[in-house]
Amino acid sequence: MLLPILILLLLFSIIPIFSTFKNAFVVRSEYDFFTAKYDVENFLVLTRSKGFNNAIKNTAFLAFITTPISLFLGLFFALIISSICFKLSRNLFITALYSQFFISSFAIGLSFSFLFGQHNAFAKILGLKINFIGNDRQSVLWVYFFFQLWRVLPFNIVILQFAINKSNLKHYKSFRIDRLKFFEKFWYIHRYEIKHSFTVILYTNFIVTALIYPSAVLGQGQDLAAIDGETITSYIYEFLGGSGRSIKFNPEVAYAASFLFFSYILFILFLFYLLRFKKLRKYYQWSKQLVIFIKNKKAKQKNKVNYV
């Protein structure tokens, strides 16, 4: 039963990861593409690259600023939708939001680019003399921020609303008997159901963030390097020849960038795992025990000295 899943996991996850790790250390000769050796030169290129540093910073900004905001807004709107009395209205909201997430990111990017990009249709419709895409990193980050919210917020709302709806169905009788207030429902009932969906939502948000491609948002022809607007996807794609400029073509540097970013994400997720609330309480208990142990040891040593 699990064999097909394991085969797919092997083909599309494990083998590509090991292949990326292996190719990241391949350094090709500057004069002969077919001459190669194993070295860390590709990683040194990345440490010296301003574009790679900007790509990491911009992607991290989207992951750690946009994601918490989208989760909070998703929960807020999910609670509002779940409080709607009419089932038909609630279902219409959910269907509209859920279909939005499954529309291609390029399709959403085209509409976003048309409204806020080079065409600036949104400002023209309202008669505003505003250009949403400026010529600096800050303005581009704002565009990424709003695009990312537009992309992930429907998914967050729908999944959280499903979790809330599930807990409502499960504890319907308890609500009627105990007459729980809104906050009591959320804290004692909904919170535990939401926890089961939280990991899926978080991982999906991180994946969507990592895959954001600026050209789908800003339009083609934007010089990202000039405005420090690279993301990790655009940076890797550049070295895979995506821009059509052969001078940038270097797949091994793209592999090294992919591997470093993958390691970075794993490290962040590991930190999240270590810093979970339950774990923090354990660490606090361990630190208390350690302090008591050290105090007892010092007291014993002091008693020994006094005895002598």
UniProtKB/TrEMBL annotation:
Gene Ontology BP term (one): transmembrane transport
Source superkingdom: Bacteria
InterPro entries documented for this protein: ABC_transporter_permease, MetI-like, MetI-like_sf
CDD domains reported in the protein's UniProt record: TM_PBP2 (cd06261)
Principal location class: membrane
Protein localization: Cell membrane
Protein name in the entry: ABC transmembrane type-1 domain-containing protein
Organism of provenance: Mycoplasma amphoriforme A39
